[in-house]
UniProtKB/TrEMBL annotation:
The keyword Membrane applies. InterPro entries: AAA+_ATPase, ABC_SmlMolc_Importer, ABC_transporter-like_ATP-bd, ABC_transporter-like_CS, ABC_transpr_FbpC, P-loop_NTPase. Residues 4-239 form the ABC transporter domain. SUPFAM superfamilies: P-loop containing nucleoside triphosphate hydrolases. This is ABC transporter ATP-binding protein. One of its GO terms (molecular function) is ATP binding. Gene3D superfamilies: P-loop containing nucleotide triphosphate hydrolases. The keyword NADP does not apply. Keywords: ATP-binding, Cell membrane, Ion transport, Iron, Iron transport, Membrane, Nucleotide-binding, Transport.
C-alpha cells in the first residue's frame, strides 16, 4: 500500500537570479507503507528540499503530495503528523531531556500522567532511561540524537523524515545509531524517509531508494537492484563502482586504450560506450598460479588492505587503476608492488552504450 505519493512536483529557487537558479522536478515518487526509504545524491541535488516539501516546510510551485491517498498540500506542517530529525539536534538548551521530549505532548494538551507514561516508553526504546534530568550540554552527540529521535517518536508520527541525522557523529556512534533506527523502524512499524549521501548507510538501512542528481530522480529501486544494474556512470560511481572504462565494442571485444576485454555474452556490437566492472567480479591471482589464460590481465598491486574477511586491492593494469574486492584466503599472501594476474568474470560486466547513457 502506498503511504506517500508525489506527482508532478516542481520547485524553483532563485527565479530572478539565473546564476543561482535551482529546479526540483519530480514526475512521480511512491513510497510504500512501512518502507525504510532513502533519498541519496551528491551535495546540492535537492534532497533536503524534497524532504521539506513532504513536511510542508517549503511551498511548491506545482504538484500534488498525497499521504494515505489524501492530498495534503493545503494541510499545515504541524497538522501533517510527520516527524522530522535533522543533522543538528535542535534541542531546547534550557530544558532537560524529559522536558524536551514532553514539549510536543504538552502543546497538544496531553495529561501529565499520560505524558509521563509515553516518555517512559520512548526513553526505553531509545536506550536513555536514567537520563531524564540531564540538559543537552550534558549529553554526547549520539545521546542528543537519541533525544531528538525520542522527541519525534513520542508524538507517534505516521511518517518520520530524517535529514542526514548521523553525519555529525563519529563512525562507531554512527553504526550504533543505525542499529537503533533499524530496531525502532521494526518496533514502531513506521514509514521512514531518510536522506544521506553515504552509500554504506544506504546499503545498511534502505529497502528502497532514489538516486538524485540536479533536482531529478536518476534511478529508483532497492540498493541491491541499483548496484546490480546502474543506469549510467553517475549512478555506478555513487554506488561505489569506480572501475569504468570508455571504449568500443568490435566483434565482441571491448577495446579501451591497450586493454581488450571479451564480451562473448553480449549482444551489442560496433558500439561505443562505458564498460562498468564491479570490484567483486575481478580476482587477483598469483602470477605463477594460473593455468587457464582466458579473460586475464597482468597487473601490479598498488595497495592491498584487509577488511573483515575481505581484501581490498588497487591494481595497476596498463596504467589504469582497478579496485578489486575478494575474500581473504589465509594461505595466500599478497604484497604491494607484486606482479599478479587479474581474472575477470564476464557476468559482472555492464556495458552502457553512448545512446543508453541517461544524462541528467
Ligand atoms: N531557500 C533557498 N533559497 C535559494 N536556494 C536554495 C534554498 N534552499 C536550497 N537552495 C539551493 O537549492 C539547491 C538544493 O539544495 P538542498 O539543500 O535541497 O540540497 P541537498 O541535496 O540537501 O544538499 P546537501 O547534501 O549539501 O545538504 C542548492 O543549490 C541550494 O543552494
Amino acid at each position: 500500500m502506498t503511504k506517500l505519493c508525489l506527482k508532478n512536483i516542481k520547485k524553483t529557487y532563485g527565479k530572478h537570479d539565473k546564476r543561482s537558479e535551482f529546479d526540483l522536478n519530480i514526475d512521480e515518487l511512491k513510497i510504500e507503507y512501512r518502507d525504510f526509504f532513502g533519498i541519496v545524491g551528491g551535495s546540492g541535488c535537492g534532497k533536503t528540499t524534497l524532504l521539506k516539501i513532504i513536511a510542508g516546510l517549503t511551498d511548491l510551485d506545482y504538484g500534488e503530495i498525497c499521504m494515505d491517498q489524501k492530498i495534503i498540500n493545503q494541510i499545515l506542517p504541524q497538522r501533517r503528523n510527520i516527524g522530522m530529525i535533522f543533522q543538528e539536534n535542535l534541542l531546547f538548551p534550557h530544558m532537560n531531556v524529559y522536558e524536551n521530549i514532553g514539549f510536543g505532548l504538552k502543546i497538544k494538551k496531553v495529561g501529565k500522567k499520560e505524558i509521563s507514561k509515553l516518555i517512559d516508553d520512548v526513553l526505553q526504546s531509545v536506550g536513555l532511561k536514567g537520563f531524564e534530568k540531564r540538559y543537552p550540554n550534558e549529553l554526547s552527540g549520539g545521546q542528543k540524537q537519541r533525544v531528538s529521535l525520542a522527541r519525534a517518536l513520542v508524538l507517534k508520527p505516521e511518517l518520520l523524515l530524517m535529514d542526514e541525522p548521523f553525519s555529525a557523529l563519529d563512525p562507531r556512534l554512527r553504526e550504533e545509531m543505525r542499529s537503533l533506527i533499524l530496531k525502532i523502524h521494526k518496533e514502531y512499524n513506521m514509514t521512514i524517509v531518510f536522506v544521506t549521501h553515504d552509500i554504506e548507510e544506504a546499503f545498511n538501512l534502505f529497502n528502497n531508494m532514489i538516486i538524485m542528481k540536479e533536482g531529478r530522480i536518476v534511478q529508483n529501486g532497492s540498493p541491491m537492484q541499483i548496484y546490480e544494474n546502474p543506469i549510467n556512470t553517475y549512478v555506478a560511481k555513487f554506488m561505489g563502482i569506480n572501475n569504468i572504462l570508455y571504449g568500443n565494442i568490435i566483434n565482441k571485444i571491448f577495446i579501451s586504450n591497450d586493454l581488450n576485454i571479451n564480451l562473448d555474452r553480449f549482444t551489442e556490437d560496433n558500439l561505443s560506450g562505458n564498460l562498468i566492472l564491479k570490484p567483486e567480479c575481478l580476482k587477483v591471482l598469483k602470477f605463477d598460479n594460473c593455468c587457464e589464460h582466458i579473460n586475464i590481465f597482468e597487473g601490479i598491486i598498488k595497495e592491498c588492505s584487509f577488511r573483515k574477511g575481505f581484501i581490498d586491492f588497487k591494481v595497476d593494469i596498463n596504467s589504469t587503476e582497478f579496485e578489486i574486492i575478494q575474500v581473504y584466503e589465509s594461505d595466500i599472501e599478497f604484497k604491494v608492488g607484486e606482479r599478479v594476474l587479474v581474472k575477470y568474470d564476464e557476468k559482472g560486466l555492464i556495458f552502457i552504450a553512448d545512446e543508453g547513457e541517461i544524462q541528467c
